[in-house]
Amino acid sequence: MRRAALPDHLTNGSFSLRASDKAGVTRTRTAAKDLVTVSRGIRVPAKSGATGSLALRAYTDLDDTSILASLSAAHIWGAPLSARWSGDWRIHLARRRGFSFPRRANVVGHLLTFLPEEVMEYDCVRLTSPARTWLDLASVLNVAELVAVGDYLVCSHGSAFPRSKEAICSMEELRDIISRHPGMRGVRSAREALDLIRVGSDSAPETQMRLLLVDAGLPEPVLNHVLFDRRGVAVLWPDAAYPQWGIALQYDGEHHAGAEQHLRDIRRQDMTASQGWLEVRIGKQHIEGEHPAVVSKVRLALQSRGWSRNDR
User: How much is the pTM?
Assistant: First the structure.
């Protein structure tokens, strides 16, 4: 006998039996072999290929109290996580204190205290706000990793950039979340990280580059700096800059390996030189290892432009 078609909103990701009951789907239909039971009361269409929030939405639809938190919320917000955490797809599910502890397969349960603005609906799931997610991560990430996530959340670019960008949350929201939870686990790391977060870093490697330079005693580069030509037209947007010494730092990620991008990089370097600036190109290999090469590379560039340690 031909199976009854599922309602469209149940076909593209996980769904709870609570949701299918509301949609009028029989329990016989939800037991069919074209649906995978991933956890008690949760089904996923076998061919959906669901990822991200679509794969996790059923977990917050099981009841009115379940909330995605910690690493799971970070995945939904798109936060950059280091290799040791990016592959951890266990589901971090929280409930407010006073409710039962979340217990099910592949779920890391939490009982937490939330203020009303710290839980929200986003992309079909109930999860912690960006700022609260960042603070929860402070109990598992090291300070550098926490800075990278913070940089990602507050990153914004103004209208002078080719593509303007709005922050996911503000520095003020990060400060406020710390002040509201002074005794929370990891709050000391969060305070330390907050002092190092800057607006304008587009990627975790760019954050790492900046932190390495500062840790080595070099001047902190400026983010969101724009170079204008004589007509006042924006022409260059370095990843980081030393305006005092006319140095532009450019981090070239893996996408710079293509031939077309290579030509764009050459044009950018020529434009930088035409503005009287020096471009320093940094790659992944320069920020790795016990003694990252980015430090000596940038130090030499600064010295070539007249910088000395007395200028710090």
Answer: 0.92
